[in-house]
């Protein structure tokens, strides 16, 4: 290259945009993954719009996934964050959803990837303050004939997963696209990864009403004014006394590992199958219950009713300690 005397000094380097999040679709269009410049990562299976992995900037996995989890679309994923809609559990006494499988059809339907939107700070500091929102859609048209027959209502769901440096947000918009009202329940069935179930306590559920699904008969009672600890099969639907924007936190060895705040999701389900996991065919390893705790934000007590054309939205933000 000819060297030119007196060539202009280099223009002050205009700070470029902060590096962007990388979003890919892989595994024959079945998995959407995103990685932030700072290293945080998330993977979502289009089957069920199930989050199957969420890693922090150091590559530490935050979600528990069974070693026997099916991610081939043959059944609901055992682990990660499956999505429950339009019914939580089974509702034999609720005519409109009584024919649906446990936890409804959202987690066993193939969703569409609607796209991504990123937000970068203008800052050029390492990694910026970037986050990326991934949107997924499901409507009556995506349903199997069986599901349509079991729940013949016109609906539209948009499920958004936002990966940020501080945490992971999931939110759902539910729309009644039909001509008549219907009602639903929804829940984000988060399997959080921990090191040792005997060392965790859950705060934010003190002095709160809860349904104990392990007791026989199932009972409704109020929790004591201290954190919840797990020492056996646990399956409880809490209505936290301090409301959705008061954090529910998983503390392990005295250190806060996860903190969850909610929007319009008034209930928090706490589930650990303990040694009963031996009766769950896709739960592995058999001592895996020691490394997981389900803390599930949902609207599952009673039913949300949508008139024709109405929309409902709810969500959660999970922050995880690095
Ligand atoms: O969220 C707790 C719960 O409703 C438990 O009762 C247990 O059934 C768990 O969900 C897992 O349900 P699944 O249908 O995924 O086996």
Automatic annotation (TrEMBL):
Which reactions appear under catalytic activity for this entry?
alpha-D-glucose 6-phosphate = beta-D-glucose 6-phosphate
Record: residues binding substrate: 78, 102, 107
**Biological process GO terms, please?**
carbohydrate metabolic process
Active-site residues, record numbering mapped to chain:
189, 296
InterPro entries attached to this UniProt entry? Aldose_1/G6P_1-epimerase (IPR008183), G6P_1-epimerase (IPR025532), Gal_mutarotase_sf_dom (IPR011013), GH-type_carb-bd (IPR014718)
Annotated Gene Ontology cellular component terms: cytoplasm
**Keywords assigned by UniProt, alphabetized:** Isomerase
GO MF, one annotated term:
carbohydrate binding
Q: What is its EC number?
A: 5.1.3.15
- EC supergroup of this enzyme: isomerase
Q: Which domain of life is it from?
A: Eukaryota
Provide the function of this protein.
Catalyzes the interconversion between the alpha and beta anomers from at least three hexose 6-phosphate sugars (Glc6P, Gal6P, and Man6P).
Family, per entry: Belongs to the glucose-6-phosphate 1-epimerase family.
Output this protein's name: Glucose-6-phosphate 1-epimerase
Q: Which organism is it from?
A: Lachnellula suecica
């Amino acid at each position: 290259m000819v060297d030119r005397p007196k060539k202009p000094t280099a223009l002050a380097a205009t700070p470029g945009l902060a590096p962007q999040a990388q979003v890919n679709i892989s595994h024959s269009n079945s998995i959407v993954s995103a990685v932030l410049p700072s290293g945080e990562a998330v993977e979502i299976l289009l089957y069920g719009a199930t989050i199957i992995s969420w890693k922090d900037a150091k590559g530490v996995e935050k979600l528990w996934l069974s070693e026997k989890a099916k991610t081939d679309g043959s059944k609901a994923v055992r682990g990660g964050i499956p999505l429950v809609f339009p019914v939580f559990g089974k509702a034999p006494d609720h005519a409109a959803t009584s024919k649906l499988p446990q936890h409804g059809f959202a987690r066993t339907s193939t969703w569409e990837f609607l796209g991504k939107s990123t937000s970068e700070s203008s800052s050029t500091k390492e990694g910026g303050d970037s986050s990326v929102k991934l949107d997924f859609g499901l409507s009556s048209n995506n349903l199997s004939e069986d599901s349509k027959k079991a729940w013949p209502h016109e609906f539209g769901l948009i499920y958004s997963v936002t990966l940020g440096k501080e945490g992971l947000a999931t939110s759902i918009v539910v729309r009644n696209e039909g001509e008549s009202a219907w009602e639903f329940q929804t829940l984000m069935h988060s399997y959080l990864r921990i090191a040792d179930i005997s060392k965790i306590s859950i705060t934010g559920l003190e002095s709160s009403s809860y349904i104990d699904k392990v007791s026989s008969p199932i009972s409704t009672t109020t929790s004591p004014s201290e954190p919840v600890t797990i020492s056996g099969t646990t399956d409880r639907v809490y209505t936290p006394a301090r409301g959705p924007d008061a954090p529910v936190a998983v503390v392990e060895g005295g250190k806060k590992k996860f903190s969850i705040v909610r929007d319009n999701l008034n209930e928090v389900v706490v589930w650990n199958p303990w040694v009963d996991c031996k009766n769950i065919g896709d739960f592995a390893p058999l001592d895996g219950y020691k490394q997981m705790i389900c803390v599930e934000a949902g609207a599952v007590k009673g039913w949300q009713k949508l008139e024709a054309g109405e929309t409902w939205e709810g969500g959660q933000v999970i922050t995880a300690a690095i």
